[in-house]
Amino acid sequence: MPGLYLHIPFCKQACHYCDFHFSTSMALKSRLVEAITQELALRADYLGPQATLDTIYFGGGTPSLLTQSELEQLFEAIHRHFQVAEDMEVTLEANPDDLTPQKVRELAASPINRLSIGLQSFHEPHLRLMNRAHSATESGAAVRLAQDAGFENISVDLIYGVPADSHAIWEQDMAAAFALGVPHLSCYALTVEPDTVFGRRQQKGTFRPPPDDFVARQFELLLQEMARHGYQQYEISNFCQPGRESRHNSAYWRGVPYLGLGPSAHSFNGHSRQYTLANNPQYVAAVLERQEVPATIEVLSPLDRANEYLMTSLRTTQGTDLRHLRDTLGVDLLIQQAAYLQELQATRLATLDDAGTLRLTDQGKLLADHITLTLFQSPTE
């Protein structure tokens, strides 16, 4: 069944690593929520008639900045236009500083049944370096507060590869996260994007990310500690206790259709993608004044779909079904990339079983982007 994503593009302050679409001005927040509500009506048929939603995901930005009445407004519109599964997964991304006792009670009384809490670190200097709005004390306190309110399905975000003299801080961050007993952890390597504070500082020479081998070692430590604590890696950056995968994100990686609402949101209906304009004022004006969604539509060729499937599936432990690529989308990597597939196996970067499933090894996961780009097919091939 399909999913629904709502992009809430507001943050209290800009994290120094983030290149997502957001605004630190709340002036348009209520109007933008109204526009998303209207977009629901305008695009109610995008997923087909009488679509039943399996998952809803509030992302951003910082969706925990939504008020109780704004959330109620959005849920009312969702239920007006869609059927929903009885066991629907409803996730809201939250920052620790927003999770006050009153806020947590409000969220617990809502349809939200899963929280994704952006801790990033338990180390105060690293939080200040990244310009996070919360303190190290708030990192753990927010999770415990949510647990006390009845939230059991909680995911925690951590960032590794932050400049440091040793791996001790990363090891302490992992230990603190495991101590919370949450069923899901998302751990991302710090990436320096050009249009961010870190990117601009790197250009000026005032910020230096750690070397690749330092980051690779922290990834290796991550895999070791996750296995030791009973967490399964089901995607390169995502780990869970058995059976506790994110249903919403897993559907992305399997190519399940979804509807994305709000500025900068993406949608996929199985044949095309839609990219909504990443501009809050223009989005609000288009939807509320002209009753239209400012978006670009890209019709996907079989080759596009094959490359997308390759890009997402190779990041998962399920791997890439090369026979599916051949039989369904007409891309036969077993022949076209036979030499490279042999090289990947010989260098122990990937395995290829008799059923034609290609899976990256732990060493191969360090080079996932490079391997994927090498396997990509262009129209001339």
Count of helical segments? Answer: 16
Distance between the termini: 34 Å
Helix content: 40-55%
Q: What proportion strand? A: 15-25%
Physical arrangement of strands within the biggest beta sheet = 7-8-6-5-4-3-2-1-9
Average pLDDT rating:
96
The count of strands amounts to 15
Q: Report low-confidence residues grouped into runs of 5 or more.
A: none
Oligomer: single chain
What does this structure look like?
It is a single chain. Strand 14 and strand 15 form a beta hairpin. The protein has 16 helices and 15 strands. The chain is an alpha/beta fold and 381 residues long.
Name a few traits of the molecule.
381 residues, alpha/beta, 3-stranded antiparallel β-sheet, 40% helix
Summarize the structure.
The chain has 381 residues and is of the alpha/beta class.
Summarize the SSE layout with pairings:
Elements: E1 3-8, H1 29-42, E2 52-60, H2 68-81, E3 83-94, H3 101-108, E4 114-120, H4 124-129, H5 136-148, E5 154-160, H6 168-179, E6 184-189, H7 197-204, H8 212-228, E7 232-235, E8 238-240, H9 247-253, E9 258-261, E10 266-268, E11 272-276, H10 280-289, E12 295-299, H11 302-313, E13 320-321, H12 322-329, H13 333-336, H14 338-346, E14 350-352, E15 357-360, H15 362-365, H16 368-375
Parallel strand pairs: 1-2, 1-9, 2-3, 3-4, 4-5, 5-6
Antiparallel strand pairs: 6-8, 7-8, 10-11, 11-12, 13-15, 14-15
Helix pairs in contact: 1-2, 1-10
